[in-house]
């Protein structure tokens, strides 16, 4: 008797043609399937963007920095004070400037970072993304520079080639303010996978940067890597106060939110809003299930009445239509899960095909130039469980409506 309501519900779901779902019931579970598939696809891509920004871009820049023209003889003191914090993993002095880099083929604007290669590799992941040459080459070569792969391609240079680096010279001469130029040898090429960095970052030895910018007795600041990236904005303020009090200085601080904080917040906000808006697709499909159930009840009123006259209870009839709506939700959710996982898994080839077909690049101006995907089982489980829960809840009203049918009144007109 327990399986009989389920059997009847399946019979109601099957159309007049045996083996095929009716058109209306098909529309019901297809709506659920599309909603689940789109939610899985979009949430996986948005999570992918967040992951790439967090693990690739934000690990290539310092979590925070103490800045303020730190004297060379105070660098070790500042680093010793910072090392007392259990939240700090590594520190490294740096010099930063904007400039130009040129070859025989091109001229590009860049950000120049003067770093200690040994200390810097504990602060940034750039040292682990070298694809040609070596990270420590900027210490070995008298005037060596490490650039990104996109920048190397734009300049038409490889490891061993010479480039000119131009930086602004604030010294006012008879001819005005002129740039300072120095020839560097390309000793390494890195690839972070973020075009914004791969085409505009260049690393040189901190001693050479001091000479190039005429600041032999100072550095611009100390780069800091914290254990928790998201605690960096608060922790660096406290650490800066600690340094200033210990050394009687007036250094300031900056953190990753000054450069990428807005983008990170925007991605999280868009992820929430897109998830919320696309959830309406499932809600619409759920209303479709309610309509389908009510239509089926009106069509099967006489059959329901006959069942009740031969002993079917209200709970028996109610279970029929609870199963009816739940089966649509279960079928649609499973189909949507399969479609969503397949499309998400093959998203890269699909996007590449569309780009070649349309002749455009969808992400040409973003911080990464491809659609990243991050499958999170927790998100997929929440999407599927939410879909199933909504369809079960949507089946409650029609099932109650069916259980309230009066057999005598229905069969009187038969």
How many strand elements? 10
By helix and strand content, what is the structural category?
A: alpha+beta
Chain oligomer state:
single chain
Distance between the termini: 27 Å
Mean pLDDT: 81
Structure description:
The chain is of the alpha+beta class. The protein has 2 domains: 4-55 and 263-411, no CATH class; 62-259, no CATH class. The protein is 54% helix and 19% strand. The protein has 15 helices and 10 strands. The protein has a 6-stranded mixed barrel. It is elongated.
Keywords:
six-stranded mixed barrel, 414 residues, alpha+beta, 15 helices
Short description:
The protein has helices at 4-13, 23-57, 72-83, 117-120, 137-140, 149-155, 195-198, 206-212, 232-247, 261-299, 301-309, 314-345, 347-358, 377-403, 407-411; strands at residues 64-71, 88-102, 107-115, 130-133, 144-148, 162-168, 179-190, 201-205, 218-226, 252-255.
Q: What layout of secondary structure does this protein have?
A:
Blueprint lengths: L3 H10 L9 H35 L6 E8 H12 L4 E15 L4 E9 L1 H4 L9 E4 L3 H4 L3 E5 H7 L6 E7 L10 E12 L4 H4 L2 E5 H7 L5 E9 L5 H16 L4 E4 L5 H39 L1 H9 L4 H32 L1 H12 L18 H27 L3 H5 L3
Parallel strand pairs: 3-8, 5-7
Antiparallel strand pairs: 1-9, 1-10, 2-3, 2-6, 2-9, 4-7, 5-8, 6-7
